[in-house]
């Protein structure tokens, strides 16, 4: 058997099934599309669920893919063994009601034995214990002896996921030889050792499970095949594990180079080497699909992967940030199969570097907090850190449990793992309860799921604002035949000029009419299978399925939306020009009133940068660029340099919006015919909405005019209040500020005089302690600034000693204590004095030896506080 490389194997598999009339589809994004049941795509069939359930019609009944996948269920074991990993590629061939067991079994055998030339005598099939049909096919059709076909139970050879489609499996195992075995005399297929490795899994989806254990035969039976590419490569290349496969080995060696280490010479280092190798693969692919680090959802999965890798880099002694450099090797080894890695590499490097830098700060903060926790334990004489504290380090500071455990073990301190697990479980339960109620597809279960998947809608709104069409479906909370005045409903038609909300553009509103009946469309939505739903209310008359109706969009709103959408394209190019090519769209909202654009950038924009961006957009508007839209194959579109969006699902044919080569983007939205139609563009705000994500809000055309009109009205109102003309406002405001400053100064001076007068002669109450004097007194209605001034004055009268003043003001108490330098040397400490006195007025405070202050809420305690102050001051100087 030839030792094919991983990239070769991927190509061979896909080409083999293309030769069997399968449509080769590119890997879907790791971000699930319309599936709330998954955080990340974790299997080859996961993105194809709509085809298996019949909710969408597949592009062909035979499909083959190599799907990138992430699984983090056993993340804690990654690195500790050579078996575990979070990232893998899943080869798959799928049949949607076309071929079944005979072909699936035959082709899997053909690929392994004829294309890869595996030794037939080293291949062992397994079947579900009750699946006699599959057993007969392996035995009679393929010719595998009965004693080499293994029957396994439901746990191993029956695939199901709650309710919905399910069925038996047939797996193929490869005998890797005794050198990979456990040495036990009964070692055979199904053993936990690495000798007999499962490399192929045919799932025969032939039943429907109602969720209560009742199974019925599916009318259309499906095939779902899965084969891990890395696992297959380890078998074909005859290497110990996936970490020794050619492209992954190159990555592993790069980690060793950075760490100045050799693999398989130190088991502790090997754990870190394997973990970093795996995690940087996952992180690189996740970022390429638009996922960025955050504290929730898939963003938190990415954050954990990056931080675990960075922490193990520290353990290996790797200096400085290194993950971005390491991801270059990931990209180089995988870009042939996944060209998006090369296209997004600048962004990938920036995200990795920023997160690694942030983690370096976080881990230092965590170490500081842990040090405080250790001190508290020592003070209490305890030797176990509580679960809540361990969870706080984990959840708030990104501190892995094993790191906390390792640090404390060195000091003879244990951790409450059960308490930590309880906190983790509580977090999981809270998250689980917060999830939406979902159907098999993981989407909200709605009446729309009941619509015939064959029903679709033709969109004719690029060139038309009206259309005549037939109603195909009407829904309220159920599918219904008719609706009357007052009914809220959704109408579906054969063709529509209404643009549905998608790609950040708000859908059209308008009217559907039939003779004297009218339906007000308040929102337009797009559903699976290309169905456009017109959501609204019947304002007059009646509509029923089959009616020929007239559809009219709100033309002015559409025109304003087009201006804002085209301006968004100009804005993105202007941002790239001013800030750099790392700028990537992270979200947008285009409505008739305004536009909002979220983009990747790692610092706030300066006023100068905002002005430059605004000027570039307005210049291109003034240049009157023609806006040309063309449909073309996706590969041809990429060659034009057209920008695509992270995570967007594109078909084989895409729509390219070209603004005279200044901006070229893949976009399905509606646009102006010429940039001059936009008229003008104004940025009204720029802000941060998440780590590494900025947001711009802007206006165009009439929106800008309305914005300036509102500004003029505010200026006019302000001028009226100032009793000045608008052109005199700046001078008038300057004069008022100066006058206010002078009055404030005069007011402070008067308050100081009043405070001094209210205090009277306090020297008669002065206490002498040796060569030092103490004054402790109370005044009314003096704020803290006034007390400081009085304190300075009394220090002059004291000579050497301590001054304490209390004042009641609006139901609150202010306290101040001052000590001269000589008194401090003799033992006076204003901060300690205040700490003892403040509780008597219901407050707290402190400060330096020479000056301290406090606040309180109990004016009734002032007299006691003054008496206590005299007592403490005397003791300090005695």
The average pLDDT value, as a whole number, equals 89
Helix/strand structural class: alpha+beta
* Gross geometry: globular
User: Helix segment count?
Assistant: 24
Keywords summarizing the entry:
878 residues, alpha+beta, 6-stranded antiparallel beta barrel, 24 helices, 39% helix, globular
Polypeptide structure, described:
Helix content is 39%, strand content 26%. The model is unreliable at 434-442 (pLDDT under 50). The chain starts with 5 loop residues before the first helix and ends with a helix. Helix 3 packs across helix 4 (132-142). The protein contains 24 helices and 35 strands. The strands form eight sheets. Strands 1, 2, 3, 4, 5, 6, 7, 8 and 9 form a nine-stranded mixed sheet that branches. Strands 13-16-20-19-18-22 form a six-stranded antiparallel beta barrel. The longest helix has 36 residues, at 345-380. By secondary structure, the protein is of the alpha+beta class.
């Amino acid at each position: 058997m030839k030792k094919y490389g991983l990239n070769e194997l991927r190509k061979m598999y896909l080409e083999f099934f293309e030769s069997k009339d399968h449509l080769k589809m590119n890997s879907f994004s790791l971000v699930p599309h319309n599936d709330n049941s998954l955080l990340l795509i974790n299997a080859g069939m996961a993105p194809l669920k709509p085809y298996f359930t019949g909710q969408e019609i597949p592009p062909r009944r035979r499909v083959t893919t190599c799907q990138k996948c992430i699984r983090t269920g056993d993340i804690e074991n990654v690195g500790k063994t050579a078996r575990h990993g979070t990232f893998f590629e899943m080869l798959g061939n799928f049949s949607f009601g076309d071929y079944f067991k005979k072909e699936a079994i035959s082709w899997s055998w053909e690929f392994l034995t004829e294309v890869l030339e595996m030794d037939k005598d080293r291949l062992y099939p397994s079947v579900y214990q009750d699946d006699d049909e599959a057993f007969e096919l392996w035995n009679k059709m393929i010719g595998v002896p009965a004693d080499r076909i293994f029957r396994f139970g439901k746990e191993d050879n029956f695939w199901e996921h709650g309710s919905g489609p399910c069925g038996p499996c047939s797996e193929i195992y490869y005998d890797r030889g005794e050198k990979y075995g456990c040495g036990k005399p009964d070692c055979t297929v199904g053993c936990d050792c690495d000798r007999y490795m499962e490399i192929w899994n045919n799932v025969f989806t032939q039943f429907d499970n109602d969720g209560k254990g009742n199974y019925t035969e599916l009318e259309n039976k499906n095939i779902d095949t899965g084969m891990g590419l890395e696992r297959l490569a380890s078998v074909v290349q005859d290497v110990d594990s996936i970490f020794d496969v050619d492209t992954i080995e190159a990555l592993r060696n790069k980690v060793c180079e950075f760490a100045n280490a050799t693999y398989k010479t130190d088991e502790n280092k090997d754990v870190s080497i394997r973990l970093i190798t795996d995690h940087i693969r996952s992180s690189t692919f996740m970022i390429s699909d638009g996922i960025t680090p955050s504290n929730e959802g898939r963003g938190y999965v990415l954050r954990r992967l990056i931080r675990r890798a960075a922490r193990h880099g520290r353990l290996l002694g790797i200096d400085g940030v290194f993950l971005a450099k390491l991801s270059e090797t990931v990209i180089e080894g995988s870009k042939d199969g996944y060209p998006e890695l090369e296209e997004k590499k600048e962004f990938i490097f920036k995200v990795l570097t920023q997160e690694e830098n942030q983690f370096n700060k976080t881990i230092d903060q965590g170490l500081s907090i842990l040090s405080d926790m250790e001190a508290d334990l020592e003070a209490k004489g305890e030797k176990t850190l509580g679960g809540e504290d361990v969870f706080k380090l984990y959840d708030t500071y990104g501190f892995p449990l094993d790191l906390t455990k390792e640090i404390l073990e060195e000091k003879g301190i244990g951790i409450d793992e059960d308490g930590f697990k309880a906190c983790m479980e509580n977090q999981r339960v809270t998250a689980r309860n917060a999830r939406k109620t979902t159907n098999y597809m993981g989407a909200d279960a709605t009446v729309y799921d009941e619509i015939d998947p064959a029903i679709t809608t033709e969109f004719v709104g690029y060139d038309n604002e009206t259309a005549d069409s037939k109603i195909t479906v009407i829904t309220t909370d159920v599918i219904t035949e008719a609706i009357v005045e007052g009914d809220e409903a959704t109408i579906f038609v054969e063709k529509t000029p209404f643009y549905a909300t998608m790609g950040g553009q708000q859908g059209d509103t308008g009217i559907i009419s039939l003779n004297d009946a009218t339906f007000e469309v308040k929102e337009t939505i797009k559903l699976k299978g290309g169905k456009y739903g017109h959501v609204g209310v019947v304002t007059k008359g009646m509509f029923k399925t089959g009616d020929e109706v007239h559809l009219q969009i709100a033309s002015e709103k559409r025109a304003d939306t087009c201006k804002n959408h085209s301006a968004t394209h100009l804005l993105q190019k202007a941002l790239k020009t001013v800030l750099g090519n790392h700028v990537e769209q992270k979200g947008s909202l285009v409505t008739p009133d305004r536009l909002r654009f979220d983009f990747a950038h790692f610092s706030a924009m300066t006023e100068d940068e905002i002005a430059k961006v605004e000027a570039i957009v307005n210049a291109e508007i003034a240049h009157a660029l023609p806006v040309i839209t063309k449909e073309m194959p996706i590969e041809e579109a990429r060659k034009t340099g057209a920008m695509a969006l992270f995570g967007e699902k594109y078909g084989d044919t895409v729509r390219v919006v070209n603004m005279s080569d200044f901006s070229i983007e893949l976009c399905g939205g509606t646009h102006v015919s010429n940039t001059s139609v936009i008229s003008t563009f104004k940025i009204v705000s720029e802000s941060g909405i998440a780590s590494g994500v900025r947001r711009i809000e802007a206006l165009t055309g009439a929106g800008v005019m309305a914005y300036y009109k509102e500004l003029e009205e505010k200026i006019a109102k302000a001028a009226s209040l100032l009793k000045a003309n608008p052109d005199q406002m700046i001078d008038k405001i300057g004069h008022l500020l100066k006058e206010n400053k002078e009055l404030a100064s005069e007011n402070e001076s008067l308050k100081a005089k009043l405070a001094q007068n209210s205090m009277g002669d306090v020297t008669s109450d002065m206490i002498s302690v040796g060569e030092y004097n103490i004054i402790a007194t109370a005044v009314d209605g003096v704020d803290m600034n006034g007390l400081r001034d009085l304190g300075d004055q009394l220090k002059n009268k004291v000579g050497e000693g301590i001054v304490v003043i209390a004042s009641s003001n609006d139901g609150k108490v202010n306290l101040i204590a001052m000590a001269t330098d000589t008194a401090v040397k003799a033992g006076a400490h204003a901060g300690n004095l205040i700490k003892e006195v403040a509780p008597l007025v219901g407050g707290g405070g402190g400060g330096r030896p020479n000056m301290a202050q406090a606040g309180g809420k109990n004016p009734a305690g002032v007299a006691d506080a003054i008496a206590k102050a005299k007592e403490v001051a005397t003791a300090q100087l005695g």
